[in-house]
Amino acid sequence: MDQILTIGLNGLTVASLYFLVASGLTLIFGMMRIVNLAHGAFYLLGGYVAFSVLQGTESWSLGLLAALAAVGAVGVVMHQVLLRAIEHEDMRVALVTIGVSLILADQLLVYYGGVAHSVVPPDFLSGGMELGVAGIVYPRYRIFVLGLAILVGIALWLFISRTRFGMIIRAGVDDRDMVSATGINVRVVFAAVFFIGSALAGLAGAVGAGAFSLAPGTDVEYLLYSLIVVIVGGMGSIPGAAIGALLVGLVSQFALGYTPAVASIVTFALMIGVLAVRPQGLLGRTA
């Protein structure tokens, strides 16, 4: 029983990180119809920015804020400079963002080297916490990651579904010309969405670097799993991303625990099964 509970908690922790990355991707990919394949590199960049700031200032919270702001700014620059003129051409957008991803990953490899780095959490988040169930002592930091993902998910859902700005975003995706006719600058709105989506990837990288290490190849792993989460949950749906992350996190961790030889196959089988039954994803809208 304690093994099952521990694997389940690991699945929730991994699902939390997948959600933080995928929530940004679902805003950009699902709501703006922009295939940002540099999203995994943004995760890696956020982790390294937090690591550098922590090394220079010894402030963990400042590292998180710096990662969020820096990666959000990089995302906006990429959108405005490289993607704005071609954002309706999916193949070009995919190729450009792949190029940005490769350049970022190579530059980070040159600067930080091929060894693994991690962001050491503050003392109040270090150590274990007794859960009072089956004598399990679980890392306090991982519980923090789970709580942060829940808070971010609630905030994003309220932002998209309950605020005027969220209404403008949804309307701009469905009918950009009509929204522009009301005097709203859709370009500015979409730039803000790109900032938020990219910043979430940076935040996930900074937080994830405290639970797992940063190393070359991490960007590809998180891009792949965040795409699976978005596809399973449904593009453009924050609750869908949460459900998708939960399913992918739990399935992947239980598969690693009991059938490690076919763990990746089981995860992809989940995506294939969902697409076979519901092509738009669990909570996605039909085209």
Draw up the topology in text.
Layout: H1 2-31, H2 39-57, H3 60-83, H4 90-112, E1 128-130, E2 137-139, H5 140-162, H6 164-174, H7 176-181, H8 186-211, H9 218-233, H10 238-258, H11 263-277
Antiparallel strand pairs: 1-2
What can you tell me about this protein's structure?
InterPro entries: ABC_transp_permease, BCAA_transport_permease. It is a multi-pass membrane protein. This protein is mostly helical. It has one domain (13-215). The protein contains 11 helices and 2 strands; from the N terminus they run ααααββααααααα. Strands 1-2 form a two-stranded antiparallel ribbon. Helix 1 runs parallel beside helix 5 and helix 3 (60-83) packs across helix 8 (186-211). The chain starts with a helix and ends in a 10-residue tail after the last helix. The model has no long low-confidence stretch (mean pLDDT 88).
Quick description:
With 287 residues, the chain is an all-alpha fold.
Estimate what percentage of residues fall within beta strands: under 5%
**Separation of the first and last Cα atoms:** 44 Å
Return the domain count: 1
The biggest sheet amounts to: 2 strands, antiparallel
Structural class: mainly alpha
Q: With helices defined by DSSP (H or I, 4 residues minimum), what is the helix count?
A: 11
Q: What's the order of the H and E elements?
A: HHHHEEHHHHHHH
For the largest sheet, list the strands in their spatial order. Answer: 1-2
Organism: Phytoactinopolyspora halophila
Subcellular location: Cell membrane
Keywords: Amino-acid transport, Cell membrane, Membrane, Transmembrane, Transmembrane helix, Transport
Protein name: Branched-chain amino acid ABC transporter permease
